Amino acid sequence: MKIIIKKTYSERLANRLSKKTRIRKKVAGTLIRPRLCIYRSLNNIYAQIIDDVSQKTLFQASSLEISSKVSLKQKAVEVGKLIAKKALENKVENVVFDRNGFIYHGRVKSLADSARENGLKF
Questions:
Q1: Buried b vs exposed e over 107-122: b needs ≥16 C-beta within 10 Å?
Q2: What does 27-73 look like in DSSP terms, one character per residue?
Q3: Does the chain have fewer CB atoms within 10 Å around its N or its C terminus?
Q4: Domains of the chain by start residue, with CATH
Q5: How far apart are the C-alpha atoms of 64 and 66, rounded to whole Å?
Q6: Paired sense of beta strands 35-40 and 45-51, if any
Q7: Residues 6+ apart with CB under 8 A from 84
Q8: How would you class 49 by CB atoms within 10 Å of its CB: exposed for 0-12, middle for 13-18, buried for 19 or more?
Q9: Model confidence over 51-76: pLDDT tens digits?
């Protein structure tokens, strides 16, 4: 008989933050190739394009800008389109993808695929 022990929220958060630090050791954005950083909350998803050298956020998009009548996955697709559109308007084509410790699955994957389809390269 197998006993399943659920992790608490603080344990899951600690796991995500340790993954985040491992990722951030390898991923850094420059002005030529900035970092596309995402954050996924329970109801919303946020994307930022960041220049780590000057420590500035160049562009941002979130699902708060989209109507709340669509599904969470569709919100992620729309945010991917928005961030790609903003980046391409300002002549940024190449980015480094930072999934911020989240698993590359579901809404994170939808946002990344949508950004790629709309012209961002990573």
A1: bbebbbebbeebebee
A2: ----SSS-EEEEEE-SS-EEEEEEETTTTEEEEEEEGGGS-TTS-HH
A3: N
A4: 28-117 (3.30.420.100)
A5: 5
A6: antiparallel
A7: 114, 115, 118, 119, 120
A8: buried
A9: 999 999 999 999 999 888 899 999 99
- Judged by DSSP in three states, 92 sits in coil
Model confidence over 3-38: pLDDT tens digits? Answer: 778 889 899 999 999 999 999 999 998 889 999 999
Structure tokens at 114: 């949508």
How buried is residue 33: exposed, middle or buried, by Cβ count under 10 Å (0-12/13-18/19+)? middle
Q: Which two tokens stand for residue 118?
A: 């709309």
